[in-house]
Amino acid sequence: MDNKKVVTFGEVMMRLSPPGHSKFSQASSLELAYGGGEANVAISLAYLGLHAAHVTRFPDNLIGRSATQFLRRHWLDTSMVIYGDQVIGKYFLEKGAVHRPSQVIYERDGSAFSKIEPGMVNWELFLKEADWFHWTGITPAISEGAAACCLEAIEVANRLGITVSADIHSRSSLWNYGKSQHEVMPDLIGGCDIVIGSEKDICDIFHVDPEGNENGFTEASRQLMKKCPRVKKVIDKNREMLSASHNRIQGKMWNGKDYFETPQLDVTHIVDRVGTGDAYAAGLIYGLLNFDDDLQTLKFATAACALKHTVEGDANMVSLENIQCLMHGDTAGRIIR
Amino acid sequence: MDNKKVVTFGEVMMRLSPPGHSKFSQASSLELAYGGGEANVAISLAYLGLHAAHVTRFPDNLIGRSATQFLRRHWLDTSMVIYGDQVIGKYFLEKGAVHRPSQVIYERDGSAFSKIEPGMVNWELFLKEADWFHWTGITPAISEGAAACCLEAIEVANRLGITVSADIHSRSSLWNYGKSQHEVMPDLIGGCDIVIGSEKDICDIFHVDPEGNENGFTEASRQLMKKCPRVKKVIDKNREMLSASHNRIQGKMWNGKDYFETPQLDVTHIVDRVGTGDAYAAGLIYGLLNFDDDLQTLKFATAACALKHTVEGDANMVSLENIQCLMHGDTAGRIIR
Amino acid sequence: MDNKKVVTFGEVMMRLSPPGHSKFSQASSLELAYGGGEANVAISLAYLGLHAAHVTRFPDNLIGRSATQFLRRHWLDTSMVIYGDQVIGKYFLEKGAVHRPSQVIYERDGSAFSKIEPGMVNWELFLKEADWFHWTGITPAISEGAAACCLEAIEVANRLGITVSADIHSRSSLWNYGKSQHEVMPDLIGGCDIVIGSEKDICDIFHVDPEGNENGFTEASRQLMKKCPRVKKVIDKNREMLSASHNRIQGKMWNGKDYFETPQLDVTHIVDRVGTGDAYAAGLIYGLLNFDDDLQTLKFATAACALKHTVEGDANMVSLENIQCLMHGDTAGRIIR
Amino acid sequence: MDNKKVVTFGEVMMRLSPPGHSKFSQASSLELAYGGGEANVAISLAYLGLHAAHVTRFPDNLIGRSATQFLRRHWLDTSMVIYGDQVIGKYFLEKGAVHRPSQVIYERDGSAFSKIEPGMVNWELFLKEADWFHWTGITPAISEGAAACCLEAIEVANRLGITVSADIHSRSSLWNYGKSQHEVMPDLIGGCDIVIGSEKDICDIFHVDPEGNENGFTEASRQLMKKCPRVKKVIDKNREMLSASHNRIQGKMWNGKDYFETPQLDVTHIVDRVGTGDAYAAGLIYGLLNFDDDLQTLKFATAACALKHTVEGDANMVSLENIQCLMHGDTAGRIIR
Amino acid sequence: MDNKKVVTFGEVMMRLSPPGHSKFSQASSLELAYGGGEANVAISLAYLGLHAAHVTRFPDNLIGRSATQFLRRHWLDTSMVIYGDQVIGKYFLEKGAVHRPSQVIYERDGSAFSKIEPGMVNWELFLKEADWFHWTGITPAISEGAAACCLEAIEVANRLGITVSADIHSRSSLWNYGKSQHEVMPDLIGGCDIVIGSEKDICDIFHVDPEGNENGFTEASRQLMKKCPRVKKVIDKNREMLSASHNRIQGKMWNGKDYFETPQLDVTHIVDRVGTGDAYAAGLIYGLLNFDDDLQTLKFATAACALKHTVEGDANMVSLENIQCLMHGDTAGRIIR
Amino acid sequence: MDNKKVVTFGEVMMRLSPPGHSKFSQASSLELAYGGGEANVAISLAYLGLHAAHVTRFPDNLIGRSATQFLRRHWLDTSMVIYGDQVIGKYFLEKGAVHRPSQVIYERDGSAFSKIEPGMVNWELFLKEADWFHWTGITPAISEGAAACCLEAIEVANRLGITVSADIHSRSSLWNYGKSQHEVMPDLIGGCDIVIGSEKDICDIFHVDPEGNENGFTEASRQLMKKCPRVKKVIDKNREMLSASHNRIQGKMWNGKDYFETPQLDVTHIVDRVGTGDAYAAGLIYGLLNFDDDLQTLKFATAACALKHTVEGDANMVSLENIQCLMHGDTAGRIIR
Q1: Where is the Carbohydrate kinase PfkB domain (chains A, B, C, D, E, F) (predicted)?
Q2: Residue C82 CB coordination number (10 Å)
């Protein structure tokens, strides 16, 4: 079971951040890592023992190769990386604390990934032995080519009978190539089995309206499922933000029949807030592949998400044991010897 | 409005501290920065968009020039720095956590600044186009020359109609050149429009006694204003120290007519405690220059002070947006993208 | 009084840990220190002003000499270190946070210390002018030779009338050379005056059973004292683990007549959890050497233990003043200038 | 004399390089600096005591502001920096040694500077009190707008009677917006008084041919001066590359009448090779402003260039004394105390 | 041709070294890498574009997994790594300079690799599609199991018709499990096609004697080939050690018919001396797979070896272009842009 | 023999230097060490196995204690350190390369050591079991008290029959408390057995004149011995400074009868130039204590001096084996395994 194969697709950016809590105005060196929503999911799953392959496009130079090496180090199968052009997408991250927000500056325009075009990726080959395909709402927002390429992938996955999941969360500020998410996303989501997204995401994309329903999330999910009958579960989480250093996390799911919620997990000393949503998505995929029980899955994902807040960088590098331990209620953080 | 010009005066020290939470007994390198109460105020204001110039005296060698370069990096106008002698003031900082206090060791004796003398600074020139002059009670404690030079500045400022503010907080241990603050400070404070100081500071300096008054701060402020009729507002803050890692901050002001207090801000994960009072002073100056409303000013200053606890180093390098956001009650520390 | 001499005995390991909160899978450098339960106690006491000498065996190469240099830097008398063989014991530490546990991997097999044999250490010489000898339950678990050598030391100490203390906490996983702690430990504990250990430790070692007694610790201590009449006090602490970043500490003692408990100390932002038990033991030894009052001793030790959680590395490097301040209830962590 | 004012114009890039001699494939952090040919010249001159102002365009975000702060730290007058768009030009540098070449990867496409347009810079204002204007052949290669903006500057400088110098060295690979340097450069060089460039640069730009002349450099310079009668001196250097760690430098000049050469300087242990040509240009400008004698100027510039090889980063931060000492033949590198 | 597959076999150690030129007695952190003669060869070949897979045995814990991740990062196929036991082999490296020698301390006893046994590795599977198998004289010196396992591999390789190469250089101090290299090595070398080793190595292993022959290396090689008729080429290099910072390298080969020598390459500023022999071996394998000409192969290998002296760490991470450039005589180290 | 005890006396300064070759204007952290001419000698001797104790005076605060810890780490007996006042002497070091000189800025005025007074050190006790006492010409230059205290020590050493050596090299710029070295030094040198100093030092101190003698050093030494009949050997070295990165070293001695010179040692890649004279002095003391032959001593000292150029920091931390190897002509820097 653990050698299930998951394929993810999306941009991987160079991540540059001043050390510790210092600011760009103070920095004389920057921490270097690489990350992106979908690759973060793949890395998390690889640390849990799955065969995780990531499809992306890097510049054909030593920066592109170093990015690939980062993914390899963190267990990804990089045989599906393609190369071309000269610029890698980047983001700069200044880490906040307490009331001081973290700040992120993206530089994605003109990146090698943004220039991806349909036909560049051999999806038939890459998805041949996969069990799961995962994408996010960021990819179709990057460029027309990326959106088209993502649609290609979903169609092949559907044809091959592979489960498809999407994290449809998207920042509207990303959509700047002339199309709106309302125009592009519904077709893509139509090919999905599992959707991770908030009530607001669903409303923005589908122009639905939960109409003052008490549990808007359930109602929005219901309407989404009506429009996209392939979708079997809609999943989200509640995040209570006490400060940049202290959040509380709670998972929730509508599975077409029932609504579930996990107890809240209290993350009192956040180390790195980035990628916690991706850790949640990875936890869901792992759970859906391994548990029969939706609540178990949700608890597993919520524990994974909470743990990611304590890991430096974009991706969740904790062990299966760490997640299981927390999922079963052990919050003590006892030293393992 | 933002191009208002503020001039500050005081010693800038080399700050040397072991990395992270390590102790001097463990260190093999030290973090290097430069700071001092008045320059910290100037830097904070410069980050908020004001024209901030700092007057100080550095040794005439590459250390002195590097110190100037630090101030320039952080936006200060350094055209008023003068040079002479060979030694820079220093302080060593070992950062504490929870119940372990931070420890500071000063080395200011014989510094280039301590040897400043009246006549060395061309105040007429430097204050010509300024809108505000700020000094603190540390400067007159350093040496007779520094005190005299500070008095020169205040007199010129008064003559030119420039607003003068003083942070009169002073450690009595600093006064060791033969005069007491009671002898020296009243004349200096007499030239001020705005005073930042505690009930205790006022009592120590003016030998007044609030006589068991319910609100001692208000009563002490009243008495100060009687002795120094130019003073229009007396401002302080309450700091609840739960530990070296957790403080609560609340601003308060007596404006001659009313007493104001802000709600408490809860700083749950302190990154660097040093310079938080200077951030408060800078917030007050910014507020008084930009808001009509005293409570707005106080809230702005309290938010600035709270945010400084999360910034490495002596000076508050947060943005205007950061402060405004917190001032209006958003404590969530949401990532800015 | 402060020049009392304490001798400790045990393995010192090389400690290798990724910087900050990063994981081994992310590290390209490791922080280097040296530590071990008994040497940690000695270093703590040396920082409090005692003459502390540690007896251990290091490999006869530049790593062994660097380890000695680490002990010397932290004030230990290293004249009693002996050298032989080629490998130092090691442990790898990945620091956790919140729900993510720290992880420790030991490599002690075949270390220079594990090959120590009776006769290698000149106990008569080394203990001649000592006031106190301290060992822990880890040492006899390492190898038959180490256990025998420890027994030698205790016998000499008893003969010379030196107070002997033991921290009998032991991980059962350590005992893998063919003997159990039940076979080995009672003889060693029989030579002790002061025992630090939990109810469970006592039960595991002596196969006693507090029989559902309300205060199991007291009852277990009573039974231990019956079997080991030299033992005068049994001491333990309660640790409430809210998370890897937040613990609460409380000291407790049975002195043969009375049971004491201190108030809880709340360690809200843990910097380094390792060695906190050793800091507690050192606090106890200091207290028993310096205070007449058992509760004072317990409060001192609990404060020492709490403070260690805020110090990087294995050993408690805080000052006497830091501990006294906290012991007397000042938890504010006010900056010392 | 030292308060002469020099204005430079050109792109400033973020410089990211792995620490020491490590490679991108090994790096987990990158050293951060900012540099560009023209700003490097300005910084060098500022360290020599001149008033140096740099004109550039940075993105209007915290990265752009941090870049400005870097220039301010290194003494530049940044009042002429303009802001717009969102991306900063970048270069990645992997430092070589001996036979392993350094490797540079540029990312300049779409940078804020490349989008500069005529009319954006108020040249009349910025050049009003300047004594010298310096540009390089890189700027017109970046974009049509940058070339046009550079021409504006030269015309204003000519009108105001300001000396104009150009380093016409250019990588032909840079010219990719549809025009060749042969089309663009002659007009710009026509407005120059001082030209720094090689025989090959001149031939490529002007399509001249020194016709097998013994001293091709002199002949090419003669032909350049015929086409551009304002040009008074053409200057170049010989670089003997024994390896990436060992170069030899020699200055040379044709001043319209005489040809000069300096003795070779032997740089045996190169620390950072980048920006050594800019240090040479800065040395020439300083020399031409301060010495009557062309050979003195050339020796000064060659010494400045040699010293830059020993300074980390793009810009030459050595002192006037350092250069004078080497220029007068003292190669011993004796410690200055 | 570049997707030729090479399999290597041997121990990979954790490499711990103080930063820069500092000594263990000064270090508070250690640089972390992983390396071993055979894996170094594989990594070099992977950087040149070959499919390189390394067979080794790591401890079954997070250190073993981190070691695997290091190999993956540097492009190795790690699907053949097996896991067991708890300790990784290690070496400590203190880097010398000029007259100060580097110092290496090995800790290989009891490592997971040393406990490898015949039958643990599925050689039939792992070598099935390989073109080349490479081992070194270090492996059979580590333990009886390692020697037996190596013999297994060679026999399978011979059966499958895969080219086998060996670097038979061995430190006699390594052979301490009761057998001598004279007893063990000849059988292993008998299965080789290509041997890398010195005259002295051959004499020590085979107890041959070149009998005062003028070119002892050729004569020893001839005798080796007589005893091991499968061997087709014997290859070595001359290293002139001017100091720890300056070496000269020259390749040499006896191919059964002719003796070749390359010109000397002068490495004037050594960055890291470790692994230079492995870089040479990798160069030879690449050359033999890609060139028809033995001298070309030798020049390629010598250039690869020289370049490794400028790369931090154990393995040669330079590009094919770097080596070709030097091999063709370009020693200038010109910046690549 | 190796447990001979050497006592040294002098100021130990905090050494602060930017990392690598960077400049103060670039630094955001400083490397921290402690050093001083006499303590450097003691540390060198301690690394060679002697019992070395250093007498100095540190401030009575955590900086003074950290300085002591540094000395302890590097094997010194620190039982003779005394404490008082609040400021430690400091020096800032910016490391040069090739033609760029290193730059040192001292801050010694008002240091705890400069305030030392006769009577503060119990010389009778400290020198009781010593075999050798060493001082340098820096100490009497620091303050009148330091000079007087040094004279005390020499007188006690003479009375106890302990060999006294002095390195009389002194920077005239140091003498600024009102007395000249000509007034102070002769009395101190009168009590010495061994003098290390140049012809120029001797002439400056004693106002002698070698009168155009061919070998001025020998003649100056002769005249010194006439004035100070206790002196038995005068020793110096020649340093050929090819650049800041490349020096050549040669020892020389006049022993009252013969003049010796060693061959030159060529230090081609200097790592740290500071303290190389102290390493030479330590080599001389070791040699004079251990060899019968003056040339052997000189060769040992020259090798020690050459090796120090490759060690970071002030003190020579190489092993006896390293020095012996080089002294016997092995310059290859072969890796020690």
Answers
A1: 4-317
A2: 16
pLDDT value, residue F1? 45
Q: What is the pLDDT of residues D32-91, one digit of tens each?
A: 999 999 999 999 999 999 999 999 999 999 999 999 999 999 999 999 999 999 999 999
CA distance B298 to F46: 61
Q: Could you give the domains of chain F?
A: 37-56+114-327 (3.40.1190.20)
Nearest residue on chain C to E25, judged by CA atoms? Answer: C66
Task: Give chain B's mean pLDDT.
Answer: 96
Q: Which of A205-219, C275-289, F104-118 has the lowest mean pLDDT?
A: A205-219
Rounded to two decimals, the ipTM of the complex is 0.96
- Judged against a pLDDT cut of 60, whether residue A243 lies above it is answered with yes
Instruction: Report the C-alpha gap between E228 and E217 in whole angstroms.
Output: 16
Tokens of C159: 């003969």
pLDDT at C210 over 90: no
Percent of chain F with pLDDT over 90: 95
- The 3-class secondary structure across chain C, one letter per residue, is CCCCEEEEECCCEEEEECCCCCCHHHCCEEEEEEECHHHHHHHHHHHCCCEEEEECEECCCHHHHHHHHHHHHCCCECCCCEECCCCCCEEEEECCECCECCEEEEECCCCCHHHCCCCCCCHHHHHCCCCEEEEECCHHHHCHHHHHHHHHHHHHHHHHCCEEEEECCCCHHHCCCCCCHHHHHHHHHCCCCEEECCHHHHHHHHCCCCCCCCCHHHHHHHHHHHHCCCCCEEEEEEEEEEECCEEEEEEEEECCCCEEECCCEEECCCCCCCCHHHHHHHHHHHHHHHCCCHHHHHHHHHHHHHHHCCCCCCCCCCCHHHHHHHHCCCCCCCCEC
- List of chain F residues whose C-beta atoms are within 8 Å of the C-beta of residue A26: 28
What is the total residue count of chain F? 337
Interface mutation target, options F76, F268, F314, chain E, most CBs of E under 10 Å: F268
**Residue in A15, A91, A99, A169 to test binding to B, most B beta-carbons within 10 Å:** A99
Q: How many CB pairs under 8 A join C and F?
A: 14
Give pTM, 2 decimals: 0.97
Give the other-Cβ count within 10 Å of E329's Cβ. Answer: 10
Tell me how close the Cα of F71 comes to any Cα of chain B, in angstroms: 12
What are residue F34's DSSP bridge partners? F14
Contacts of B28 in chain E (CB under 8 A): 26, 28
Q: Please give the sequence-ordered ranges of beta strands (E in DSSP) within E78-189, or none if there are none.
A: 82-83, 90-94, 103-107, 132-136, 163-167
CA distance D282 to chain E (A): 21
> How many A/E residue pairs have CB atoms within 8 Å?
14
The DSSP call for residue E335 is: P
Strand A259-261, strand B51-55: pairing:
unpaired
Q: Could you tell me the two tokens for A76?
A: 């990804």
User: Nearest C-alpha of chain E: how many angstroms from D238?
Assistant: 14
Picking from B73, B74, B336, the nearest residue to A101 by CB comes out as: B336
CA–CA dist A100, F301 (Å, integer): 59
Which residue of F17, F22, F23, F30 to mutate against B (max B Cβ within 10 Å)? F30
Q: Are D337 and F104 in contact (CB under 8 A)?
A: yes
Give chain E's residues under pLDDT 70. 1-2
| CB contact (8 A) between residue F31 and residue B33 | no
- Cα distance from C240 to chain E (closest Cα, Å)? 28
CA distance D156 to D159: 5
R_g (Cα) of chain F, nearest Å: 19
Q: Tell me how far apart the alpha carbons of residues A183 and A189 are, in angstroms, rounded to a whole number.
A: 12
Q: CB neighbours of C127 closer than 8 A, spacing ≥ 6?
A: C7, C133, C153, C156, C157, C160, C162
Q: What is the phi/psi pair of residue A55, to 5°?
A: -100, 120
